[in-house]
Design a protein that fits this description.
mainly beta; Tachylectin-2, Chain A; Jelly Rolls; four-stranded antiparallel β-sheet; 3 helices
Length: 504
């Protein structure tokens, strides 16, 4: 099936456990039906296959949940590895009924398989948090790897220490094993006194750097990473220590041998409403990770997703507010082309926009030194990619893209570049109170007057993914406005735009 942001038809996708073999990513994931009466209680693991992050093969349920009286009623996050011809998964067995019965809620559990489809659970290998140093009901999300230097397997876990400020006891616990059966609990791998819990720990090496990935829900609900030249640390935070924002969570990574990807999920919102509470689980989102010269990681759209949306659509812009120079598309005012290029712009971006006018793209510019100006297009496909390159003047307070807006511009969404604050924010109108934008959905972006900035916006139903200059990602949900047009805007400043609208 083809789905840019996969979600099972009868439920939601939660934490993904990625693996790659024989040219295909094998994605084990936690499935939640959100319908206890019909499907029963608990979460099993399902298996999904993809070669391009666009087309998916559903292999179905592969690791069944246990019963209400069993430890793994809820099978939570874990990991997969292959040793010889045997596959191993280590996972969290969680039972919310156990504490009331005097039993421990969470345990690390083990299963094996020869084909990834049929798994044999090994209940005797289950083990729990040591009572002398860890809280008993937080012992989950095992990540296992072979430590070549130590000559043993290491397991990282999301755990909480027994002592310290309650919201700062989160740590990455460490266990070691020679045989993947018996595990020795050691001193924590990383205990920085920063978070309530470090969920879904993940570890990989790229070049000279080790990267520790984890997700938090205390100060911010987001996936972080830290970097170190040694497994012993120190684990340093880069300037931008996150892959995305509030609408991308529990990311774990894997590589196809050439490129590394982060697999997370864009959460749904309660009631399918823009003001609904963020929920656990949603749609799969995959970002490609790239290493920079200083070791920091940037995020970009996978090439296969970009290529899958390549059919250009006519884009007709009209003046909505203020005075604009518009050229190209199937209509628009007569004007002079205002394309502004930059030495740092990619060859791909330059080639795409060189032919924008002939292929249905538009160029547009406006000067609004003390006001707001907007140009609008009548319709926006429900599944599309909108590429916009914007170059703004030194006096500009804000500029960007309107999504699913009505003709009056009184309703819709806004992607706003704010040069003074060096960030991109997701905004919507109407919204309640004096909150200036959707807090938690902003992203830091390097913005320089006169230097082109490229936004690649992918929309599929209610899911919206934005990539800036192939370095920064921002996720969002579009619930309240399912239809409408798109547009460009400048707020107290000047900017020129080049746009191309594409469909699958």
């Amino acid at each position: 099936m083809s789905d840019f942001f996969y979600r099972p038809a009868d439920g939601v996708l939660a934490d993904v456990i990625p693996f790659y073999e024989d040219g295909e990513f094998k994605l084990l994931y936690l499935k939640d039906w959100r319908d206890k009466e019909r499907f029963g209680e608990g979460t099993p693991w399902f298996l999904l296959g993809t070669k391009d992050f666009v087309n998916y093969t559903e292999y179905g349920e592969v690791l069944p949940r246990g019963g209400e009286s069993e430890q793994d009623l809820y099978i939570y996050t874990g990991c997969i590895l292959k040793v010889g011809k045997l596959y191993h998964i280590f996972y969290t067995g969680n039972n919310f009924h156990y504490p009331a019965q005097g039993k421990l809620q969470q345990a690390v559990m083990h299963a094996t398989s020869t084909d990834l489809l049929h798994w044999t659970k090994i209940p005797e290998d289950a083990f729990y948090a040591p009572a002398d140093r860890y809280e008993q009901h937080d012992w989950r999300d095992p990540f296992v790897f072979w430590n070549e230097e130590a000559g043993e397997y290491w397991m990282l876990l999301a755990a909480r220490l027994k002592e310290g400020p309650s919201r700062r006891r989160g740590c990455v616990a460490l266990c070691a094993s020679k045989d993947l059966t018996s595990w020795e609990v050691r001193e924590p791998f990383w205990a920085p006194s920063l978070y309530t819990t470090h969920e879904c720990p993940d570890l990989f090496k790229m070049g000279d750097w080790w990267y520790l990935v984890y997700s938090t829900f205390s100060d911010r609900t987001v996936t972080h990473y830290r970097m170190s030249k040694s497994l012993a640390g120190p684990w340093l935070a880069p300037d931008n220590d996150t892959f995305d924002n509030r609408a991308f969570y529990a990311a774990k990574t894997w590589t196809d041998g050439e490129r590394r990807y982060a697999f997370g999920w864009n959460p749904t919102r309660e009631g399918e409403h823009d003001e609904g509470t963020w929920q656990w689980g949603g749609n799969l989102v995959v970002h490609e990770l790239a290493q920079q010269a200083d070791g920091s990681l940037t995020v970009r759209m996978p090439d296969s997703v970009r290529a899958a949306m390549s059919r250009r659509v006519d884009a007709e812009l009209r003046e909505a507010v203020g005075s604009w120079r518009i050229e190209g598309g199937s209509g628009g005012a007569s004007a002079v082309s205002v394309r502004a290029t930059d030495a740092g712009e990619s060859a791909e971006a330059a080639d795409e926009f060189e032919s924008a006018e002939a292929a249905g793209g538009c160029t547009a510019a406006a000067e609004a030194p003390d006001s707001f100006a907007a140009a609008a297009s009548a319709s926006l496909p429900s599944r599309c990619r909108l590429s916009v390159t914007v170059t703004f003047g030194s006096d500009t307070r804000g500029c960007g893209v309107l999504l699913r807006t009505d003709e009056s511009l009184d309703r819709g969404y806004m992607l706003r570049l704010e040069p003074g604050r060096q960030r991109l924010v997701f905004d919507r109108w109407p919204r309640k109170g004096d909150v200036p934008f959707e807090v938690g959905l902003e992203r830091p972006v390097a913005l320089t007057p006169g230097v082109a900035c490229r936004l690649d916006i992918v929309i599929d139903g209610t899911v919206c993914e934005v990539y800036v200059d192939d370095t920064v990602a921002m996720s969002a949900r579009l619930y309240d406005h399912r239809e409408g047009g798109w547009g460009l805007f400048v707020s107290e400043g000047s900017a020129s735009f080049n746009t191309v609208l594409l469909e699958p």
